[in-house]
Amino acid sequence: MKTIQTINELQHFLQNNKNKSIGFVPTMGYLHEGHLTLLKKARLENDVVVMSIFVNPAQFGPNEDLDRYPRDIEKDTELATAEGVDVLFAPTAEEMYPFESGITIHAGTLSTKLCGESRPGHFDGVLKVITKLFHIVQPTRVYFGQKDAQQLAIIETFVQAYNFPVEIIRVPTVREIDGLAKSSRNVFLSDAERAEATHLYKALSSAMEVWEQTNSVEEAISKARLLIESNTSGKIDYFEALSYPDLQPISNHTEQILFATAVFFEKARLIDNIIVNVKEV
Ligand code: PAF
Questions:
Q1: 124 touches ligand 1 (CB under 6 Å)
Q2: Which of 21, 67, 97, 212 is the most exposed place for a label (fewest CB within 10 A)?
Q3: CATH fold for the domain made of 2-171
Q4: 2-171 and 184-271 agree in CATH topology
Q5: What is the pLDDT of residues 17-26, one digit of tens each?
Q6: Is any atom of ligand 1 closer than 6 Å to the C-beta of 157?
Q7: Is the pLDDT of residue 281 over 80?
Q8: How many CA atoms lie within 13 A of 34 on its CB side?
Q9: Residue 155 CA: which ligand 1 atom is closest?
């Protein structure tokens, strides 16, 4: 595996691999099994696999965890090599943002809900880096985990609305045996919090079951909130049900329901979700 830090060098490599399909997995590093699942799928479906590691300052708010976001480039390099990645693109912030253009991208209405509400500007920052990375890598397929369901919905909509010539591949969330969604931020949980955190998935599963039995979103949400409140020390940021991927209130026409939650623990804000196909229920 080649590690490349500059855009020029990466584009030189890609020039030499013209006419091959490029599978791209953008990450912020500190890889876990969720990322490895994306890499495996990319490896199976493409001639060349490019993974980026870039902790993107543009998507962190002033009081968020940019400085202490976990990093381990050596271990990530080993894991990516083992997954058959061809190129690890690991640029510096100066390489990615050498000058301030004054031109901005706004994620718009889809970013006013869920995580966007408590993280203003976050999705603008995600679209900023994604646009740059897509133009730099020019991938055939790009792989995203469903754990970040809102991010995925916004990127899919952006790509469709603005004709980015890429295929976005949704990959299901990878979980620990007890149901906790794999996340780089899980390392910030204390032992007690780690045990409690399994209730996020339990609450989402319960919401789905209550909704299936009663058809009442309100009842599903209130029971799920209670489950989190009575079993964890975490503070619920939101627990919501919206149609997916358009993030609208549930109606008779809704085909997929997204149950999504975010919970603040002492040093980590965790997110998780479940997507239910209404027709299959
Ligand atoms: O999901 C992530 O890790 C990041 O938001 C992404 C897509 C790599 C953009 O920085």
A1: no
A2: 67
A3: Rossmann fold (3.40.50)
A4: no
A5: 999 999 999 9
A6: no
A7: no
A8: 26
A9: 7
CATH topology for 184-271 is Pantoate--beta-alanine Ligase; Chain: A,domain 2 (3.30.1300)
Rounded to the nearest angstrom, the distance between the alpha carbon of 178 and the centre of ligand 1 is 25
Domain definitions of the chain by residue range: 2-171, 184-271
Distant-in-sequence, close-in-space partners of 264: CB < 8 Å, separation ≥ 6: 234, 235, 236, 237
Which atom of ligand 1 is nearest to 54's Cα? 10
Q: Before 245, cis peptide (omega within 30)? A: yes
Number of H helices and E strands in the chain, helices first, is 10, 9
pTM here is 0.97
Position in ligand 1 atom list of the atom nearest CA 56? 10
Evaluate: CB of 23 within 6 angstroms of ligand 1.
no
Cα(212) to centroid(ligand 1), Å? 32
β-pairing verdict for 256-264 and 269-277: antiparallel
Query: Nearest to residue 151, comparing CAs of 132, 127, 182?
Result: 127
Confidence of residue 48 (pLDDT cuts 50, 70, 90): very high
Mean pLDDT of 37-44: 98
> Looking at ligand 1, which residue's alpha carbon is closest to its atom 2?
27
Mean pLDDT for the chain overall: 97
- Residue 213 Cα to ligand 1 middle (Å): 36
Residues catalogued as catalytic: 35
